[in-house]
Amino acid sequence: MKKIQMVDLNGQYQDIKDQVNDSIATILETSAFINGADVKAFQKELETYLGVKHVIPCGNGTDALQIAMMGLGLKPGDEVITADFTFAATVEVIALLKLTPVLVDVDADTFNIDIAAIEKAITPKTKAIVPVHLFGQCANMDSIMELAEKHNLYVIEDNAQAIGANYTFKNGAKQKAGTIGHVGSTSFFPSKNLGCYGDGGAIFTNDDDLAHTLRGMVNHGMYVRYHHDVIGVNSRLDSIQAAVLRAKLPKLDAYCQARRDAAKKYSMAFEGQEHIVVPKTTNGCDGICETCDCHVFHQYTLKITNGKRDALVEHFKEKGIPCGVYYPIPLHRQKAYLDERYKEEDFPVTNQLVQEVISLPMHTQLDDEQINFITATVIDFVND
Ligand SMILES: *Cc1c(COP(=O)(O)O)cnc(C)c1O
Description:
Elements: H1 9-30, H2 37-50, E1 54-58, H3 61-71, E2 79-83, H4 89-96, E3 100-104, H5 115-121, E4 126-130, H6 141-151, E5 154-158, E6 166-168, E7 174-176, E8 183-187, E9 201-205, H7 208-217, E10 222-224, E11 227-228, H8 239-248, H9 252-269, E12 276-277, E13 300-304, H10 309-319, H11 348-356, E14 357-360, H12 368-383
Parallel strand pairs: 2-3, 2-4, 4-5, 5-8
Antiparallel strand pairs: 1-9, 6-7, 8-9, 10-11, 12-13, 13-14
The chain binds pyridoxal-5'-phosphate (PLP).
């Protein structure tokens, strides 16, 4: 059996090697390292793929979130509601901008922000909601957009983990993750579903004025060279990363499908297991539905409900199976984000998830032998 990896970047590289190497060689010869032709071309290609009017490339997914919030004109003291169960970048930029983060609990089935918890947290100071499309599927955007409209709030989608996912609205219409709210952000960190070979990110919006503001903000607030109209930052996607992304973007749907195929095999193997809960999608199809494209499985995350999660992590080490615990500590208990407003009883789901979740190897190159070995190892150990 091939050695099992958590992510397999080399396998993907072998497939696009000639194109990537040629594009990088051209960039080296022309020295157009920043804002070269590949960056502009990638921007257009991603706009077309996503069906969104504006893509603003930037330095990484954390910057993308921060710049989106700056572009919306959020001010110190404004409250921004986001999920307690996510990567810290989301809450980090809220705090950095001196906005007030308001963490709320998530849904036990989808791991995404809980709608009732959002509603409960809205105050007259609330200005925005940041749903994180965790592990590869959208939060409940029907309800979030409804709440936002009712309370006049911005919606900023943190789409670092769900690029390529479709969201299916209640009326059956579909839209790409990250293009539904007022603004969306993503990350091209190497291990993300569309990853480059360094850092990279992008912001998406259908709002022409906001797009203009954001394009200047990523480049020192300049709209005309050496004229600084607003305070900006330096956050650019470089040409080499754009060239890598241009080679990968046409394959993104196939990458997503390969992940879904692996997820389907995992879920089928775990069917009927009492102590193993497989990931649910918002369409309720357990990740084994043939036609569903709402989940792109950035992670395939199980819940181990009989208290053996930590022991399983240790057992995996002995068996040579990599795994991840995303995330082991709720944000409301992280030292940097402690706040006396938070009460433990407000986070029952997150507090339980951090003890039960385990993410299995998930990438586009997993083969059946590996999947069978992983699922058999989990089932044997959990029932032992
Ligand atoms: C990866 C990630 C980010 C940050 O992206 P970087 O490119 O690493 O800055 C933000 N939010 C979520 C949910 C992520 O998974």
